[in-house]
Amino acid sequence: MNLISVIIVTHNSQTNIQACLDTVLAQNYQAGEIVVIDNASRDETREIVRNKYPGVVLIENSQNYGYPKALNQGIVKTQGEFILCLNDDARLAGVDFLTLANEAMKKNQRIGVIQPKMFKPDGTIDTTGICLTFLRRYYDLNSGKIDAPELNIKKYIFGACNAVVLYRRQALEQVKQGQEYFDEDFFGLVEDVDLSWRMQKKSWATLYEPELVSVHMRGLSRRRDSFTQYLNMRNRYLMIIKNESLVGFLRYPFVFLIYDLWRVLLMLIINPKYFFQAVYQIVVLLPKMFNKRRIIT
């Protein structure tokens, strides 16, 4: 079995894919396999991968299936004990990223996920992991901060950002719902928070490892357009339905009043089309989410 498999999802990524692949191929410890899943790009992404990277496996989807489904395609296609998922706009820093990742994962068999230190192009922190609060607010740890000594301490955290993350295949197999590792109903956004919550429920640890460094340009997750507002609202509630404890559900009216209410009203005012679409989708997907909840509980 190959030790590390690399999965990269692309969509109109001609400006980023070469830099991403080049940093993977420059590693001292070579990945056993690299798979690119292209979600129906209309630019030169596929041609670049085919012509310049003959050793890379390219899966060409006929339509944009979304990020979670593409990742699932890659996981099924690969054989590695460890799986490195990369956004197409991410780069590995240095040539020992895979070496250090491999060593960190092998130190503790209960580590299911490793989160690297991720920088923005301007040198500030992009994320050091995901936090989920009592109010079920999720956010990137230390985002926008300047790097500091306290950020060089490895620690266990709630979850990892999918832009650059190493998973143990065994952990993914334990938390998958039916045939899905990442929830394909989410399409994009929040699927990493959802997976992190499932990892927690199955007692898999997520380690922040600051020796692993990467750079992330940030695309969909940093946009503030109507579609991303829709995805964030819809997927937040789908995630809560799937993962919240009974006690959490009992306290949720309080959470809604102090955290969600003004956000919901604002969405209704500024983006009514997508507000009603989100509500409709939540209602339609409710039985499916409860079924997925039973699988993982």
Describe the structure.
By secondary structure, the protein is an alpha/beta fold. The protein folds into 2 domains: about 5-220, Spore Coat Polysaccharide Biosynthesis Protein SpsA, Chain A (Alpha-Beta Complex); about 225-295, no CATH class. Helix content is about 40%, strand content about 20%. The protein has 9 helices and 12 strands. Strands 1, 2, 3, 4, 5, 6, 7, 10, 11 and 12 form a 10-stranded mixed beta sheet that branches. It has a two-stranded antiparallel ribbon with strand order 8-9. A hairpin with a 5-residue loop joins strand 8 and strand 9 (about 140). Helix 6 runs parallel beside helix 7, helix 7 (about 225-245) runs parallel beside helix 9 (about 270-295) and helix 8 packs antiparallel against helix 9 (about 270-295). The two termini are about 30 Å apart. The relative contact order is 0.13.
Provide a short characterization of the protein structure.
The chain has 297 residues and is of the alpha/beta class. The strands form two sheets. Strands 1, 2, 3, 4, 5, 6, 7, 10, 11 and 12 form a ten-stranded mixed beta sheet that branches. Helix 1 links the parallel strand 1 and strand 2.
